[in-house]
Amino acid sequence: SSSSSTTTTSLSAGIGATLSRISDSIRSKERSRDELKIGIAGFYDRSSKLWEDVWGEHMHHGYYIPEDRTDHVQAQIDLIDEVLKWAGVPEHENENGEGRGNIPTKVVDVGCGIGGSSRHIANKYGCTASGITLSPYQANRGNELAKEQGLDGLTDFRVADALEMPFDDNSFDLVWSLESGEHMPDKEKFVNELFRVAMPGGRIIIVTWCHRDLEKGETGLTKKEEKLLAKINRAYYLPRWCSVDDYVKLLESKGATDIKREDWSYIIAPFWKAVIKSSLNLKSILGLAKSGFSTQRGAYAMFLMLRGFNKGLIKFGLIT
Prior knowledge:
Structural class: alpha/beta
């Protein structure tokens, strides 16, 4: 009958699509921009609750000085404060001076997760903060947490694409991107958007995973290095990587002044070991078992990230 043939066709198509995904995964095939956009949203829709249950509201690395510290949540909060300090953003309002030394009043958090950084910065300075993410779950959870913390008057979270931000030109005096740049398939367009929404004289801070800078005479990474990054890309829905040097060149081409860069790989190095360790308790294992294939693959990729860090291939770059 027609209904049984339709069922058979649908089943065949479903099996075919699954086999194709498995094949792409094994070959670490690079994804298109549309595939990345859908994949990133789905990955974080599925994995954010598990992360929050185990690690809390901050979905980024921690600041490990001293390196043996075990207060991991505080280490994540300290990372935000230390990055702000490193970038020359004043600690308190009483340090407020003329010109670009001023504390932020309007902040955009590009790739905000569930809004941990936005709420911390809004609470710290009494400024407004708008966060964008591709994940509907993250945007909704960010707004829920803001309400719970009494910060819903200062912060808002929405679903939007960082390469096409829904903000007017010259809207923010602090443009903050913490561990989201690695997801951007077009780094030049990403940097252009950061500049577009920044006020004249505003500050742009990019903290992102990068590959190592190329040595003099090198035209690219080694095949072995490319292979490792390709495996990580499949797990975390990442496009091709770039170096901190590439970001600096993009900023220079936009006429940025007072560019500053630093490698904090050694400061965040203990983080991945801590994450791996935290995933070995019963609660995390049960959560991971329920979370689905892409989150489980993401958990496996933590070991690949650690390998990349240890080999000096993956860098934790700060650029402002």
